[in-house]
């Protein structure tokens, strides 16, 4: 699949409505060490191109483990391949290295013989393609994970407004070059009965090959999708190949404030894939 232009465009609402009933997966745990999404193009590759893919994957893991981000190329002409790997900037280095190694193994196994492979984890992402996607903001593939539970102990309308304001700030902060493609923020709101306050944690994250301006636009597009699928939900994330937006009611970015998320907070997630 060819990358989109550097100006993100919204998906067709009609396409979304038609595809959601078909593409909702069974509920799954919202956290874990396994890949949260994998995309493999249906068109195949030659032996020479597959050799280039193997070279790119082998180069990406050590480079990105050292710098949290790397690109690589291999091959020439019809066998040329481009690759990118990146960890979230807040993740500890050891977790980054482990994530990238798992990502390379997963995409090599799942997408063997495919001209375009992408794999997404909580802490990292890795992709390769026979088309040069470096520097292009790609929103063509959309992965949405939404908690199956609504927020509890709060007024749902107030929760929705607070989440919306939080994620709007996150999108704006993601477009600030000083943040290097990673924006995190929190907000708190009172409970229905005057008890403990609920904290909402928000994050926006972009691949480092796109500009700060495109990062802000990409995260803003992801944030704009949240009301379409995640209204009142305790957590949700919209993932593109170049960026993502996520919010939860438990700490999920580092530092974790010394709080462990309970199984009840994590809950279960539905998965939606658009434009695959």
Class of secondary structure makeup: alpha+beta
Q: Gap between N and C termini, in Å?
A: 8 Å
Alpha plus pi helix count = 6
Classified by CATH, the class of the largest domain is Alpha Beta
Q: In percent terms, what proportion of residues is strand?
A: 25-35%
The order of strands across the largest sheet is: 1-12-7-10-11-9-8
Biggest sheet details: 7 strands, antiparallel
User: Based on the structure given, which CATH architecture of the largest domain is correct?
Assistant: 2-Layer Sandwich
| CATH topology value of the largest domain | Killer Toxin P4, Chain A
Overall 3D geometry?
elongated
InterPro entries: CRR_secretory_protein, GNK2, GNK2_sf
Subcellular location: Secreted
Main location: secreted
Signal peptide: 1-32
Structural description of this entry:
The protein is an alpha+beta fold. The protein folds into two domains: about 35-130, Killer Toxin P4, Chain A (2-Layer Sandwich); about 140-275, Killer Toxin P4, Chain A, CATH 3.30.430. It has six helices and twelve strands. Strands 1-12-7-10-11-9-8 form a seven-stranded antiparallel β-sheet. Strand 10 (about 235-240) and strand 11 (about 245-250) form a beta hairpin. Mean pLDDT is about 85; it is low at about 1-25.
């Amino acid at each position: 699949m060819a990358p989109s232009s550097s100006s993100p465009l919204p998906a067709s609402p009609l396409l979304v409505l038609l595809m959601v009933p078909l593409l909702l997966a069974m509920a799954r745990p919202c956290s874990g060490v396994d890949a949260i999404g994998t995309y493999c193009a249906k068109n195949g590759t030659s032996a020479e191109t597959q050799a280039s893919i193997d070279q790119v994957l082998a180069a990406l893991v050590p480079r990105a483990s050292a710098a949290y981000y790397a690109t690589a190329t291999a091959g020439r002409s019809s066998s040329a391949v481009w690759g990118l790997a990146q960890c979230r900037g807040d993740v500890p280095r050891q977790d980054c290295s482990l994530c990238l190694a798992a990502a390379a193994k997963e995409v090599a196994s799942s997408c063997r013989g495919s001209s375009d492979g992408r794999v997404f984890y909580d802490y990292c992402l890795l992709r390769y393609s026979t088309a040069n996607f470096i520097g292009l903001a790609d929103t063509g593939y959309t992965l949405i994970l939404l908690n199956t539970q609504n927020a509890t102990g709060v007024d749902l309308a107030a929760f929705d407004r607070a989440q919306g304001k939080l994620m709007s700030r996150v999108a704006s902060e993601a477009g600030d070059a000083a943040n290097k493609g990673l924006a995190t923020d929190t907000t708190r709101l009172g409970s229905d009965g005057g008890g403990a306050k609920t904290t909402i944690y928000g994050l926006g994250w972009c691949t480092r090959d796109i500009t700060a301006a495109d990062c802000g636009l990409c995260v803003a597009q992801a944030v704009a999708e949240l009301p379409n699928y995640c209204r009142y939900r305790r957590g949700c994330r919209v993932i593109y190949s170049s960026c993502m937006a996520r919010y939860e009611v438990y700490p999920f970015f580092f530092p974790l404030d010394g709080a462990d998320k309970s199984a009840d907070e994590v809950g279960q997630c539905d998965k939606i894939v658009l434009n695959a």
